[in-house]
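Onboarding guide, step 5: your first structure request.
Type a short instruction followed by the sequence, for example:

Predict the 3D structure of this protein.
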Amino acid sequence: MGAEGPGAVRRPGFGQGEEDTIGTTLATTLNQFRAVSVPRMQDRVRWLAAFRRLVTAARDELCDLAGQEVHKPYFEALTADVLPLLAAVRWHERYGPGVLKPRRAAGKPWFMVGQRARLTQQPLGTVAIIATWNYPVQLLGIQLVQAVCAGNRVIVKPSERAPRTQGRLMELALAAAADVKLGEGLIEVRPATRKAGADLLEDHTSGKVKLDHVVFTGSTAVGRRIAAWAAEHLVSTTLELSGCDSALVMADADPVLAARSIWHAATTNGGQTCMAPRRALVDAAVYQRFAREMGTLAAAARPRRLIDAAAAARCVELAQEAVKGGARPASGLLELPAAGDPAVLRPMAMLDCPAASEAVRGEHFGPLLAVVPTGGLEAMLAIHRRCGQHLSVSVYTRDAKGAAERIAPLLGASQVNINDSLIPTAIPDTAIAGHGESGWGASRGRAGLLGLSRPVAVSRTSTRIRTPLDAPDAKFVKRFSGFVGWMFR
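The system replies with structure tokens like these:
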């Protein structure tokens, strides 16, 4: 017999030629697996660092592109898009390896003698990201970072409304991958067209690609269609859908601070933010002071170009309907789109909105804030709960600890901000985690990173000390039953 190579497999009853064939086949299979294996964690961290440096260097270009395509002012694009992405990348560099680090299973029961288990997080496989436009750098960038950090292959379909911004972002991601030799084909970019999203799912259906997970950010209507497709094909999903949330201003709140904070959140990005308040529910005790401050802010507002004329028209339609029900514009004027550009609209706050008004429901995507006077927390919660899409709710009160303990659990949101709106959602370890009509699955932070991986438990059983397999006699069974009753009483 000749010396056995590292790939040979010895099988009783097989001749030397057959053993060589098995060994060669196994070696070939292992080599093929290694060719498409998951990049090492240290290589993924090197990619994160390279991507961060490239995005930092290209920040002006990314901000300019976002301004041209989705009409963001430079400073807003820098602080609300690029900066949160950079912070998230650095968070993943520092904490991602620890979140995904294998660990020993804790709390092994005494009767599992001779056994140990190691818990690991493995990549899902191929993750498709169907991107959105309203935060073209931040949202896509963080989803991409989490998918790669978790060790997945990623296919990105950029938004048709931000093709150059997201195209440039993906060029930076690919350049970073090339710089650190992360792996050929680990990141793929599809065309930035509406049809390309449906084509990507069809490619899975036809067998051209195998998708293991789909991340979608967008409307609830499209999210339902993706969920139906995914259920048919048993593909897991993360759906970041719409939020139509509230800001609650309690009787002990600082009404000026609350008005300024809520107005900033409601008008940032032209009101095109899923996690910003659509309605302010204000206790009657501070309502007049809140309304006066809101009037000052609304009167000083500058017009903003929205993504399209339809978004502006919808805001105007809801404002006019609210006025018919008794509401009044905080600025004193009922705004209309600009004569030369129907997509340009000045932000509006509608005071004294009837609770039943469509503006209060918040099913719009633009700079319109409905302000409702209320008689306390119970009335606020009744209005808040009529609207079923909750992502990020704000509570303004001097009793921050009490609000966190008593009110936050009642709001049905994944993010509750005490004495602020929108800004705290940029903390890298916080997650967007909708439920119901706001979607499902977590994106960002520890929860999002774990959501783009899957838990695998690897157990090892001793060959010497093992749980007995043979059935004992009746006397032992009786004594053992008594012992179990004593142990777990």
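Each response can be followed by summary notes, for example: Residues 74-100 form the longest helix (27 residues).
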